Structures are given as C-alpha cells and as structure tokens.
From TrEMBL:
Membrane topology listed for this record: Single-pass membrane protein
Transmembrane residue ranges: 58-78
Keyword set, alphabetical order: Electron transport, Membrane, Mitochondrion, Mitochondrion inner membrane, Respiratory chain, Transmembrane, Transmembrane helix, Transport
Entry function: Accessory subunit of the mitochondrial membrane respiratory chain NADH dehydrogenase (Complex I), that is believed not to be involved in catalysis. Complex I functions in the transfer of electrons from NADH to the respiratory chain. The immediate electron acceptor for the enzyme is believed to be ubiquinone.
InterPro entries cross-referenced by the UniProt entry: NDUFB3 (IPR012576)
Main location: mitochondrion
Similarity annotation: Belongs to the complex I NDUFB3 subunit family.
Name this protein carries in UniProt: NADH-ubiquinone oxidoreductase B12 subunit
Matching Pfam families: NDUF_B12 (PF08122)
Top-level taxon of origin: Eukaryota
Record localization: Mitochondrion inner membrane
Length: 95
C-alpha cells in the first residue's frame, strides 16, 4: 500500500487546493436575518397556489366521474340484471 493512500484514509476527504473550507463558510454564514426574496416568493404557497388547491386541480373531473360511475353501477345492478342467465340454467343444457 502506498503511503499517500494511508494519509488520505486518515483525513477522510481530500483537502482543498485553495485552502477554502466550505463547512467553515456555511457555519459562519448562519441564517440570514432578512431574506430579500421572501415576499417575492410568498405568493407561490398562498391562495390559489396553496398545497390543497394544487392537489385539487391535479385531477380535474375526478369527482364528477366517480359519481357518474357509481350511478351507472347502481343502474346496471337495478335495471340491467339478466335473470334468465342464472347459475341453474348453465347446468341443464350445457355439458
């Protein structure tokens, strides 16, 4: 094993060529006191664009289609029931 591999394994990651440490920079920056774009971005999550309204608009017509399908299933069950093709009819003449 090469000695350089031992040194790299000991440090865990490659050192930066410039000496700039991203973790130290992020830690020193912290959270900004004021976000200048906060007001400009707020409209994206309120009113017409709230999470509920975005989900509701994802499937237009789903509610109407569900009610229509349920009504058709009820109509088929009540009025289109074909009683002369019961289980007993299949056993008599068909072998």
């Amino acid at each position: 094993m090469y000695p350089t591999r031992l040194l790299r394994a000991h440090h865990g990651e490659k050192p930066s060529l410039t000496g700039f440490d991203v973790r130290k920079y992020a830690h020193s920056a912290g959270q900004p006191r004021y976000d200048p774009w906060e007001r400009a971005e707020a409209w994206r999550y309120t009113g017409q664009f709230s999470r509920f309204n975005r989900f509701r608009g994802a499937f237009p017509g789903l509610g109407i289609a569900t009610v229509a399908f349920a009504a058709y299933c009820g109509y088929e069950y009540m009025f289109l029931n074909d009683s002369h093709h019961g289980d007993a009819a299949h056993g008599e003449g068909h072998h």
